[in-house]
Design goal:
globular, 6 helices, 132 residues, 68% helix
Length: 132
């Protein structure tokens, strides 16, 4: 990244995506609970046990993205995870305000996660400290 503001853009993207992952992981853990999340996963066709690694991935990914650590691989896995999550919504149409949520928001998040996987963490990150 050569533009002098691009590191700030990468930071904002990482912070927003990391906060979203933390919020989703904490909601699964503290609000719906892991057994409740497992039940939801099973009700939409995913194996219930996947709720556990997904929740802990979301929590870990949130922290790592905020810190800017291992951003490319974490964001790449996050993009795939978000795309798979979006498949639940494909039959609901475009708008997330549709019953059971449409697919535009989860696909937007998948694309948003793909961006730091391609861009990297930027100068204002833990990853940049490793290369300084």
């Amino acid at each position: 990244m050569t533009d002098r503001t691009s590191s700030y853009a990468a930071l904002l993207l990482r912070l927003a995506l990391g906060a979203m992952f933390l919020a989703h992981g904490l909601t699964k853990l503290l609000v719906f609970t892991l057994p409740g999340t497992a039940g939801f996963f099973a009700s939409v066709g995913f194996p219930g046990w996947m709720a556990y690694p997904v929740t802990f991935f979301e929590l870990g990914a949130g922290v790592l993205l905020i810190l800017g650590a291992w951003v490319r691989p974490v964001a790449a896995v996050a993009a795939v995870q978000l795309f798979v999550a979006a498949t639940v919504h494909f039959g609901n149409g475009w708008s997330f305000s549709n019953p059971n949520g449409g697919w535009e928001y989860p696909i937007f998040l998948a694309v948003t996660a793909a961006a730091p996987a391609l861009l990297g963490a930027g100068r204002l990150s833990w990853d940049a400290r490793k290369h300084a």
